[in-house]
Structures are given as C-alpha cells and as structure tokens.
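Q: Please design a sequence for this.
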C-alpha cells in the first residue's frame, strides 16, 4: 500500500530527535546557552528537559502502534513547529545567532539554511502525522517494502533533512589550537608555528580605527571574540577584568565584538571597557575567529603568539596557560592575583 511509504517520515523524525537529544544531553550547558541566544523566555528547568523529551519522542515514534502514534506524532509536530517559529524569529534579530541545536554536531549559526532545514522537518512531521492517522506505524510497516519508488522518495526526504541538520555551516573550519607547552619543554614551543599578524582594523568605542598591529605595539594583546546574548560570552565578560589583573599588565586583554556599542553596553556591560568593534567581521575572518567565544594572542613582535582557540573551556585554558608561562618566566608582579577562572567556570 502507498501509505506504507509514510513510515519514512516517521523514521526521519525519530532519527533527528534521537541524534539531537543525545547531542543535547552531552552538551547541557550549550542547550541552556541556546535558550539565551535565541531569547526564549522559558523556566530555568526547561533546557534540562528538552533533551530527555526529544529522546522519549524519538523512541516512541519507533515503537508506538498506530493509535498511540497519532498522539506521539502530534507532539512531535508541535515541537518541530515551535523550533521553526524560534528559528524564523531569530533570523530577524539584529545580529547572527549561534546555538547548539545539535550539540557539537552540524552548523551552529542560524541562517536561511537553518530555516529550510526546519521547514523540511515540519514537512516530515506533517507526513508522519498523516501516516499515523492512516494507521501506519514502524512496527507494522517494516515487513512491506514492495512500494520501492515511494520508499525511495521518502528516503530522499530523510537524506535531505539529515544533511541540512548535521551538515557543516559552510564556514571554513578554524585550525586546531596548538597544544600548550609544558614549562621547560622546548619541543612543545616548536609545535606552534607563528605567523605574522594579519592586517585588520578594529574600531574603538570612540570611533577611532585601530589596527591589529597597533593593538600589540607595546605589549602582547589577548583578543577575545565575544557576542552579546551568547551564553558563554556573558559568563566570560566579567572575567576580562580579572584576567587583566592576573596577567599583571604584561598582556593587554581586549574583547572583539560584532555588535554596536549600545548593544554591548546593554547586554555585556562588564566587557564594555575592554571592547573593540568588528561590525563587518573582517578581523574575525583574518584571525579565523569563527566562533564565539574564541581567542587569539597577538605578540608584540608582530607575530601571532597563540591560538586561535574556540569555546569557553579553551579560552579559559589559554588564559591559564599564558599566566603560567608568565609566572614561570618571573614576568608577573608579586601582587598579581591567583587564577580564579577555572573555579568561576565550575560554580
């Protein structure tokens, strides 16, 4: 029967929900950050329930008989429609939004491609509900494979949805950060190949143009790429002052924003005194700072001295490594405060 081919949208929805739920379960903080970045007004416990809900729905789509599948497919469609509305609204925000919809899998920046993906997911949800209403279910359909062309069409839909969901964003991948050298380990230092600081212009809050070379003329500069509304960026913003104190003035700490000063002052006021602006993302591109937060260390000798690194843990680890190397070299003032970034992150 042709209706049997409608089981493929059910399988598609189940696969996406299981993969998404498993990824969110591994990256619980990323899910909470996504709620903030997407400006979803929900109770604090909602992000923690999203992954289990997706996993339960995914399993239920696979094992439910036709009468119960109607309820499960309806709940799945409602969830997919909610995702579609959230993405459509996010596309109207002033600045691009990054979220961990699939944990570390797939693209993270919300674009028109994301809306296309979610539209296909909604279509799959509608077809899954239609199949359930017609009495189709996975257990009853697996034995009937004679409608090969309908199965092929459904498989094409499943492949398109999975490709758009889990495929890359089209952005070039940031290079892996060089491993931190152990104190006294010359071989570790040689692992990091230093390149000249590329040309790029940032803008100060006063509107003055400042090149990357000028930023590190007198001392090295740690440039941390942040974005207002990004959960990890919000957590890092108050630590910029702490990091500057920990580095004892030997290394300057600056934040690179892709938003205007008014938005930074509103959403990340703690970072405003350290802010530089890169509204057209030219500096982010030449330094390969493709994610927020990310960081790179500009050397006072005109060469890159570390990074780029991507993600909150990597940025914090980079600051800790810089401080440890300065301490080993005796370059820190005696009154430099101890490192507190790791304990702050774990709170």
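A: Design:
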């Amino acid at each position: 029967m042709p209706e049997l081919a409608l089981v493929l949208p059910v399988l598609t929805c189940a696969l996406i929900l299981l993969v998404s739920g498993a990824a969110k379960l591994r990256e619980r903080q990323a899910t909470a950050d996504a709620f903030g970045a997407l400006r979803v007004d929900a109770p604090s416990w909602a992000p923690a329930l999203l992954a289990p809900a997706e996993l339960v729905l995914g399993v239920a789509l696979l094992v439910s008989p036709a009468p119960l599948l109607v309820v499960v497919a309806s709940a799945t469609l409602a969830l997919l429609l909610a995702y579609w509305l959230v993405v459509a609204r996010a596309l109207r925000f002033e600045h691009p939004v990054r979220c961990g919809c699939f944990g570390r899998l797939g693209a993270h920046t919300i674009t028109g491609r994301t809306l296309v993906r979610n539209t296909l997911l909604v279509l799959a949800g509608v077809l899954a509900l239609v199949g359930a209403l017609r009495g189709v279910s996975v257990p009853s359909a697996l034995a009937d494979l004679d409608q090969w062309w309908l199965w092929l069409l459904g498989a094409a839909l499943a492949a398109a949805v999975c490709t758009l969901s889990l495929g890359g964003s089209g952005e070039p991948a940031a290079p892996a950060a060089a491993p931190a050298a152990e104190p006294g380990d010359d071989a570790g230092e040689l692992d990091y190949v230093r390149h000249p600081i590329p040309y790029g212009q940032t803008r100060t809050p006063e509107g003055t143009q400042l090149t990357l070379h000028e930023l590190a003329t007198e001392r090295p500069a740690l440039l941390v790429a942040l974005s207002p509304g990004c959960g990890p960026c919000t957590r890092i913003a108050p630590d910029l002052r702490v990091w500057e104190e920990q580095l004892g003035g030997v290394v300057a700490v600056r934040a690179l924003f892709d938003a205007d000063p008014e938005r930074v002052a509103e959403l990340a006021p703690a970072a405003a005194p350290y802010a530089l602006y890169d509204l057209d993302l030219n500096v982010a591109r030449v330094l390969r700072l493709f994610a927020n937060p990310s960081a790179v260390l500009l050397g006072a000798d005109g060469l890159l001295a570390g990074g780029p690194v991507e993600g909150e843990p990597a940025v914090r680890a980079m600051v800790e490594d810089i401080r440890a190397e300065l301490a080993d070299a005796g370059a820190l003032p005696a009154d430099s405060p101890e490192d507190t970034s790791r304990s702050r992150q774990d709170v």
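Q: Thanks. Anything notable?
A: The chain has two domains: 2-166, 186-346. The CA atoms of residues 316 and 342 lie 7 Å apart.
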